[in-house]
Automatic annotation (TrEMBL):
Organism: Candidatus Gottesmanbacteria bacterium RIFCSPHIGHO2_02_FULL_39_14
Lineage: Bacteria, Candidatus Gottesmaniibacteriota
SUPFAM superfamilies: Ribonuclease H-like
Cellular component terms (Gene Ontology): cytoplasm; Holliday junction resolvase complex
InterPro entries to which the protein is assigned, alphabetical: RNaseH-like_sf, RNaseH_sf, X-over_junc_endoDNase_Mg_BS, X-over_junc_endoDNase_RuvC
Binding site for Mg(2+) 1: 7, 140
Gene that encodes the chain: ruvC
A GO molecular-function annotation: crossover junction DNA endonuclease activity
Residues holding Mg(2+) 2: 67
Protein name, entry field: Crossover junction endodeoxyribonuclease RuvC
GO terms, biological process: DNA recombination; DNA repair
Keywords, ordered alphabetically: Cytoplasm, DNA damage, DNA recombination, DNA repair, DNA-binding, Endonuclease, Hydrolase, Magnesium, Metal-binding, Nuclease
């Protein structure tokens, strides 16, 4: 199974493509889609859409994993991330890629077994699981890989329950 994990944002959208085979995961691609801050919002969203489509066409993921977002402080940030999520979901839908969403708690529990794990703990687990020489950077890419791994582990457990 090939899973694309996506951490949507307007400035940076993190993407990680992971292959899962017989309980072993490997990183196929990690990329930060960055947009120029001086461009219009519509131009930035268009760039995210175009570059994400290139990644989808190259790796042909079976499923996509996104983080279910929760904002309680900055409405402006939530609004911008929501627009980016919409563009990401549109690209995934048009490419007929099923979308699975996971809460931050599910990601933390899946990778560390601890719901209050710090970002550094999650990043260290991603590095260890994928046998990487260093922690993925920027954080958005590491988060995308964590979300993709969460799907790999959750999918495995859910299929065993069925």
């Amino acid at each position: 199974m090939i899973v694309i994990g996506i951490d949507p944002g307007v400035a940076i959208t993190g993407c990680a493509v992971i292959s899962e085979d017989k309980g072993s995961q490997s990183l196929l691609c990690s990329i930060a889609i960055t947009t120029p801050p001086r461009e219009t919002l519509s131009a930035r969203l268009s760039l995210i859409y175009q570059l994400l489509n290139k990644i989808l066409n190259k790796f042909k993921p079976d499923v996509a994993a996104l983080e279910n977002l929760f904002f309680n402080t900055n409405a402006k940030t939530a609004f911008l991330v929501g627009q980016s999520r919409g563009v990401v979901q549109l690209a995934l839908h048009q490419n007929k890629i099923p979308i699975f969403e996971y809460t931050p708690l599910q990601v933390k529990m899946s990778l560390t077994g601890y719901g209050r794990a710090e970002k550094q703990q999650i990043q260290a687990m991603v590095k260890q699981i994928l046998k990487l020489p260093e922690i993925l950077s920027p954080d958005d890419v590491a988060d995308a890989a964590a979300i993709a791994l969460t799907h790999c582990f959750s999918y495995k457990i859910n299929s065993q329950i069925k």
